[in-house]
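ENTRY TYPE: protein
WANTED: fold as tokens:
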Amino acid sequence: MRHPLSPVFAAAVLMLACLALRAQTASPIELRILAINDFHGNLRPPPGGIRTSDPADKTGKIAVPAGGAEHMATLVNELREGRKNHIFVAAGDLIGASPFLSAMFHDEPTIESLSMMGLDVASVGNHEFDEGKDELLRMQNGGCHPVDGCQGPHAFAGAKFRYLAASTFENSTGKTVLPPYAIRQFDGIPVAFIGLTLKGTPGLVAPPGIAGLEFRDEAETVNALVPELKALGVEAIVVLIHEGGFPTGDYNECPGISGPVVDIVQKLDRAVDMVVSGHTHQAYVCEIDGRLVTSADKYGTIVTAIDVKLDPATHDIISARADNVIVRSRVLAKDPEQTALLEAYDKVAGPLANRVAGSVTASLSRLPNDAGESVLGDIIADAQLAATRAEADGGAVVAFTNPGGIRSDIAKKPDGTVTYADVFAAQPFRNQLVTLTLTGAQIKTMLEQQWLDPARPRILQVSNGFSYTWDGARPFGERVVAGSMSLNGQPVDPATTWRVAVNGFLAVGGDGFSVLKTGTAARTGIYDVDALYAWFQANSPLSPAAPARIRRVN
């Protein structure tokens, strides 16, 4: 016998049917995602801005003045204007390897600046680990620096945005150092943002700072989270990854992209809708494996505006398109709130920053030649040798420094002067110098380890008096030409011991130079930036000389 539906139940069924029909026919929900990566504490516009294709000659390049927190904040506000749904995200390396104004205060000004701009979530990059896990957690949670204390114009409260670290686990607990993802709601539709750094982070930072941490495979990490997110009702998934690629086109193009991000994206679960990338300091808007993949150059020169449409019925992303917008520092007004923040830090840092270190007759470039040697690299290695040569300072006879520690050219100003801030910008990590005893055989092993990553060799810069030849046609482990190493004109005997100066990052095996961990009789000295400052004071004016200490064949 059939029973008629009660009026109340019938009305409820009708209402649910109407809601389902409305969801199926409703207009898509629009969401604007703003994205940056690799800001590296560039609170002021970086020298050189961004290089783009010349509109008048597509075969050439032009430099466009760009960047700076004051201008970026204005652009971010403009790109949000009139948008009901929006979010500001980042793909790592917001701090670390920063210019003086940020680095002097352990990047607290940058965290405050981005918090003021309304940054919501950010993946952790390798440079977020430059001062170790505990310092990263201080960036998130606030508080005074454990060694230098409270130096800024006000108390440091930590980031108002949320750092994400899906692939970084603590071995002792089996849990991630920071949350793996964040879910945000837009007109009732949940969107998940998964944040992670590159698997190769241990080879890019000092080992002591990440002791006890595991950096897992990027794609496997993301794919393992998909069922968990789906169980929470999430269909729209965005990955913020600190890994990237190398395109051949202009800043809004993507012809012939290569690099790690291509392989990672192709391995991602089909539930992942789009990827915001970084690390390679490139600008691109790509489609890889049917998914949007973006990157916003470096140093705050670009903000990526990504327009997403969400399906009200399925809650999934049905379309996404992106535009890399240049932060044009000569066009965009300065945001007053950002200006006030920078001025407050300038007031504290100014007297130290403006101290004259010396002078130059021409700009000192960090750009390497075909052999991997640079003008500025030679000068920095010479400065480090001078600072460690005395017996009381370590008794070094040769110095080596890593190219990744040289972050900026020292440009010639009209009057030729070089300030402490200029020196600091070139050497911002404040690594102490360490003098070790190594055999000639260990020195050769160290040089062979320059090609641990054939795609990104790390050619050490060497001090005056040391020279060698390497052969690009030889296999890994045999590239240093036998008998070519010499010090002050004498062959480097494999069995003889030598006192060698390096920075603290290298001394603990940073950048993969593991043989340096076997050095003996370690003597710790002054900071690398102070050694360079002293070299300028003693030898100015400095003039660039053609690099000729490292020779390459084939």
User: Anything to note?
Assistant: The two ends are 92 Å apart (CA to CA). The chain has two domains: 27-337, 357-553.
